[in-house]
Amino acid sequence: MFTRGRSIHIHAPAEAVFDYVSDLSKHPEWTAQPMQVTVNGPLQPGTTYTSNAHFQGDIPGKGQVLEVDRPKHFAFDATDSSGHYKWHFDITPDGDGVHLDYGFERLSAPLLFRVLQGPVLWPVFGNKWAAQSLERIKAKLEGGAA
Asked: What's the distance, Cα to Cα, between the start and end of the chain in Å?
């Protein structure tokens, strides 16, 4: 099993953080790569979505909402040419804001991704992109610029 994640402190109420990160249609505002997302229903387990990320060409994807526990936890899955992943956000009250954990678990992937993801792709790209994404979320919720 391959899992990775990052975390950040955000000066905002847990409900506001949850509402923002659980709105899949807003993910293009903060993701590292340009993308579009179309959500096919309300925020509840089983709701599906489609996506199209732009990195070295178009990368179509799809997924569904898996877990909704406002304001503490949100999880969804995503499948594209890089594999099938479960993504999560965990929100914990922390002083004057929250501690936001953001990460994924690889459920399946083509051999090339399984071989390169740990030693190359995560250290070179993924870790940086996750940090940038969290900084954009923080800036949006704290009212600043990323």
From this structure: 32
Contacts (Cβ under 8 Å, ≥6 apart) of 17: 10, 71, 91, 98, 100, 137, 141
2 three-class SS: strand
Helix, strand, coil percentages, rounded to 5, for the chain:
30, 45, 25
What's the pLDDT tens digit per position in 43-87? 999 999 999 999 888 999 999 999 999 999 999 999 999 999 999
User: Could you tell me the CA-to-CA distances from 104 to 4, 15, 83, 138 in Å, in that order?
Assistant: 6, 22, 12, 19
**Is the whole-model pTM more than 0.70?**
yes
Q: SS3 letters for 22-86?
A: CCHHHHHHCCCCCEEEEECCCCCCCCEEEEEEECCCEEEEEEEEEEEECCCEEEEEEEECCEEEE
Q: CA-CA distance, 100 to 32, in Å (whole number)?
A: 17
Please state, in angstroms and rounded to a whole number, the distance separating the CA atoms of residues 126 and 132: 10
